[in-house]
């Protein structure tokens, strides 16, 4: 017979090992790699003799180092934002926010990516639909969801931002026709630095922080976030506000009927 205490300890050790591996990967990929790049370029500049002309190849290296600085700053800023939200220290200014213009603005900011990816974005939000939220934070959340949808949906696909009211509850969803996720993966993607296999294969760029930010941001605005998904059935991320929201219902839910 298996000892329940021993098996509990075993699974705690397994979880600890998984978290350690995730941190090791994050430090190596998101912090050490860009820092090493910046250090290398600065050393080249340091070794240059006074008055020596800048080689064209050096300019390219400097451009690379600037990109690395940007990546590092993005990770650190996003991580700080998440920590601030988590500890209730983020300034959240709640006001009535109209969802249609907000969705349109987010789509505009992601337009270049949509064109590049060959994915169509449609907005189906009633003009009168509004929620109590922080406009800037909600904008970041919707843009994160749109960015993911565009990043993971193959060319020719479709992303729909839709708004609806269910009694006192208002929902805004970002739904795509991409590859979707299995239930186990879907339950984990709201954790920090969680990414599906694509990252390890180097196909998709990102830090695995976007959804962790969305989760903390929605909680800070007393809303909720969930995803309905299944392999090959796309992802349908739903933000909920008002009645029924804020009850900690963050996470994966069963695929919506449209997916069955
Ligand atoms: N619409 C989607 N379709 C398929 N997989 C998704 C979708 N949205 C998120 N995921 C999966 O969830 C993971 C976590 O998403 P998240 O936004 O947190 O990180 P990221 O996009 O990889 O990086 P970042 O947002 O920090 O740039 C993604 O790497 C991807 O594996
Ligand atoms: Mg993302």
Write the layout of secondary structure elements.
Elements: H1 4-47, H2 56-86, E1 95-98, H3 99-109, H4 111-117, E2 120-124, E3 130-133, H5 135-152, E4 158-166, E5 169-176, H6 183-188, H7 210-220, E6 224-229, E7 235-242, E8 251-253
Parallel strand pairs: 2-4, 6-8
Antiparallel strand pairs: 1-3, 4-5, 5-7, 6-7
Fold and architecture overview:
This protein is of the alpha/beta class. The protein has two domains: 4-86, Helix Hairpins; 95-259, Histidine kinase-like ATPase, C-terminal domain (Heat Shock Protein 90), CATH 3.30.565. Helix content is 49%, strand content 18%. It contains seven helices and eight strands, in the order ααβααββαββααβββ. The protein has helices at 4-47, 56-86, 99-109, 111-117, 135-152, 183-188, 210-220; strands at 95-98, 120-124, 130-133, 158-166, 169-176, 224-229, 235-242, 251-253. The strands form two sheets. Strands 2-4-5-7-6-8 form a six-stranded mixed sheet. The chain is globular, with a radius of gyration of 21 Å. The model is unreliable at 196-203 and 246-260 (pLDDT under 50). Adenosine-5'-triphosphate binds next to helix 5 and helix 7. Magnesium ion (MG) is lined by residues 144, 147-148, 206, 210.
Structure, briefly:
Helix content is 49%, strand content 18%. With 260 residues, it is an alpha/beta fold.
């Amino acid at each position: 017979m298996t000892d329940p205490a021993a098996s509990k300890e075993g699974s705690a050790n397994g979880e600890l090992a998984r978290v350690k591996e995730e941190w090791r990967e994050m430090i190596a990929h998101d912090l050490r790699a860009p820092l090493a790049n910046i250090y290398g370029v600065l050393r080249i500049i340091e070794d240059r003799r006074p008055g020596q002309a800048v080689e064209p190849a050096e300019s390219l290296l400097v451009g690379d180092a600037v990109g690395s600085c940007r990546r590092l700053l993005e990770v650190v800023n996003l991580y700080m934002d998440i920590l601030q939200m988590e500890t209730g220290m983020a300034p959240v200014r709640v006001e009535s926010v109209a969802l249609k213009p907000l969705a349109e603005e987010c789509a505009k900011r992601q337009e270049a990516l949509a064109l590049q990816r060959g994915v169509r974005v449609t907005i189906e939000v009633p003009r009168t639909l509004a929620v109590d939220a922080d406009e800037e934070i909600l904008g970041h959340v919707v843009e994160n969801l749109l960015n993911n949808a565009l990043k993971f949906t193959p060319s020719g696909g479709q992303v729909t931002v839709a708004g609806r009211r269910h009694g006192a509850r208002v929902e805004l969803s970002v739904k795509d026709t991409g590859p979707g996720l299995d239930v186990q993966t879907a339950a984990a993607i709201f954790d920090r630095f969680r990414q599906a296999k694509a990252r390890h294969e180097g196909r998709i760029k990102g830090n695995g922080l976007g959804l962790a930010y969305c989760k903390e941001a929605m909680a800070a605005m007393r809303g909720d976030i969930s995803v309905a998904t299944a392999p090959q059935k796309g992802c349908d991320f739903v933000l909920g506000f008002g009645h029924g929201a804020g009850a900690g219902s963050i996470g994966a839910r069963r695929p919506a009927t449209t997916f069955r």
